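Support request, priority: normal
Reporter: lab tech (M.K.)
Component: structure prediction queue

Hi team, I submitted a job for Cysteine sulfinic acid decarboxylase from Elysia marginata yesterday, and the status page still shows it as pending. I've pasted the exact input below so you can check whether something in the sequence is tripping the parser. The sequence length should be 862 residues. Please let me know if I need to resubmit or if it's stuck on your end.
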Amino acid sequence: MYEENQNNIIVVVVAVVVVVVVLVVVVVVVVVVVVKEVVIVVVGSFNSSSSGRNSIVVVEVVIVVVVVAVVIVVAVVVVVVVVVVVVVVVVVVVVVVVVVVVVSSNIVIVVVVVVIVVVVVAIVVVIVVVVVAAAVVVVVVVVVVVVVDSSSSSSSIVVVVVVVVVLIVVVVVVVVVVVVVVVVVVVVVVVVVVVLVVVDLVVIVAVVVLEVVEVARLVIILIVHDDDDDDSGSVHPLQDKALRTTSPLFFVFRFSGPRSPFNDPEVVKFLDDAFEMIKTESLQKGTDRANPVVVFKQPQELATLLDTEISEAPATHDQLLEAMKKVIQYSVKSGHPGFFNQLYAGLDPYSQVGAWLTTSLNCNIHTYEVSPAFVILERYIFKKMADLVGFEHGDGFFCPGGSASNIFALHMARFNRFPEVRKKGLYGLPPLRMYTSDMAHYSLMKGVLYLGLGTDNIVTIKSDEQGRMLVSDLEKRIKEDLEQGYTPLYVNATSGTTVFGAFDDLTAISEVCKTYNLWLHSDVSGSIFLLRSLNLRPRTYCARSVSSPATETNRATVIQWEKQPPDYSCHGDQTVFSHCFTVALFVSVAGLETDRAQYVRGLSGAVLNYGTGGREFESRRRRLLIIKTCLSSSRVAWACWGGGVLLSQKYRHLMKGSHLLNSIAWNFHKSSGTPVQTSAFLVNDPSRTMLERANSSKAEYLFQPDKYYDSSYDVGDKTVMCGRHADVLKLWMQWRALGDSGMGAKIDKAYDNARYLTEKMKVTEGFKLVLSEFECTNICFWYIPTRLRGKPENGAWWKEVSKVAPKLKERMMKAGTMMIQYQALSSKGLVNFFRIIILNPMLGETDMDFVIQEFERLGHDL
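Reply from support: The job had stalled in the queue. We restarted it manually and it finished. Here are the results:
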């Protein structure tokens, strides 16, 4: 379309140029003829006249020259007027057509408007040309009269008359040509419009007739076709053709309705300017070492600078661009090489494009029919993640951050232990206990608040000097709670703690959870979350020394238990517990509702065989409550921060034991630099239904069972969320662009930089490491100003050191050169220290050297 319009413009310009050239040639010819005659008259007069005659000749010559000048001026005016009129016609037509096309996409309206414009402009052109021609003739006649009256020379009169005749002929020819051209154009346009309208009407009538015929044919098919008598398995004619055929009426009226604002030239220009600003100001300048990582302003001042007011009138595009520029100017540049503040840093160009594309598509990833591409990509990514972790059956979804993943873990643990909580709620549940180390992420606290489990039920486990959970203390606290009648539910291990970056021993913790049948969850305050669903297969259990069931309602009594090979059989509604392969933890619940007590289907009326003598104990009046932790062990690890090591061949050993776990929440926006937020929650679920059983609501307006495609691709019922952002594309784009090797290289580079900086701090005066070595890319240290170096490290000294970090951070922010977080750690008795996070793949050894130098420059005199 653009090329066609461009060709039309070229044709018009060429035509105008040709007309102008012809007119100029005519004028030049006339001038030459006139000048020639003037010369002849003048020369002849001087040769044949006396001296008394010379003055008269001079006067006549002057008159002739004036006539020639008038003719030239009039000719130029005619040319200029014609050119101006043609240009105005072209501009008006183009503007009107563009405006009409933008305002209305109806082709009939566009054609009618164009015809009206062409006719009006044609009339104007004819009028202008005729008026100009008349003016020229009048001027020439006046000049002729003056010359004839004042001239006594017959030769001069002849010259003037010749000039007048030639000029009149030229004017008449121009007028005739213009009128003919205008008439032809108008006739052609009118004919074309009439043809288009007639064709359009014929098409509409034909389509309506075809629709009527098609409807009649379908009605006949419905009447004649008998599904009951058709055993051939052939597809119904309606399904085969009619229902898969788009109505022709759609194509007839496809141009009706308002056009998209994204086709508006002004909006397109705004988008171009906005994307250019994002590319230049945010991405390029925001990652340039020469620019500040932040231009810090106090909140009140920043609110004034940003001009946050929204008025009644709409803002102009220039105002919006100016607002964008200010937002970029005063925002923190997390892709800057000086940003070490949080557990995310760096910008990846490919994932940025994925994020933009995702936003432009604006799809909610809950059903396949609205997000087909995203659903397919998400399935693939989770399969790839499952292979890395070692999960045999991977399933999951992206959720809004690692804290949300942590809450999902608690939710899944509670559901698997007490599935009746979906209907009955928390009423009647025993007191549950959650275990976590003193170095764990605070999101566990939020999780128990959100799920109503109570913060008093969080049991804090001690950690060693490196920040790793003490497995011996974990086992001790579990035993104590069992003795006091609590129900241990959940262990929160850590793979890459928030502060020290420590990795808990997943293998050892998993053994404890297996022994005591607990749900193991590893919280790493950032990037991988591993969870295991309960295996709900029937198992066989035996009680060795049972004199009578426990009589205290809702109180579990430990009889004796040990791990043995499973042996089970199910008969109808009965679950038979045979032989003595497993000694179970069980309880008799007197008077408890069947649907609450019956954790294993068919438990009511179960026949319990115990001992080797084959004596049977039949419990028909009481309900046996089998604590589900003895059915199978569940293991979870949350590794949102340290999980990136799974991408590295060199450092993946830090997550040893991940194959023993059952789900993972992996924050790629932390370890891999994918845009915030990209948090994946992956479950190893052989049943492939656990997420749906725990979270589904089966909303009929979304999840119809009789859809025209495989409804298992509808992912919305796997999560408590309905609206969910499609985060997969930005990760898939990055991973596809870099490959497995490139993703792993990011992790390796971060570790290399962290090791270099650690060694540098060990040998640089003024730096004191909190730990001698760090397992992740966190580095915790104190900066010691000059006045405190070499002094005794007593209580007063540490008090002064604690004041350094806040003051130095303030200087750092005002300078805009770096951003590094600081904190105290009261559980370890540590005063304020800096925690630098090394993630950005742009960093090198020179950047690590700059950190050392900048600390000395900003803090030596504190």
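The chain has 22 helices and 20 strands. The longest strand covers residues 830-837. Let us know if anything else looks off. Ticket resolved.
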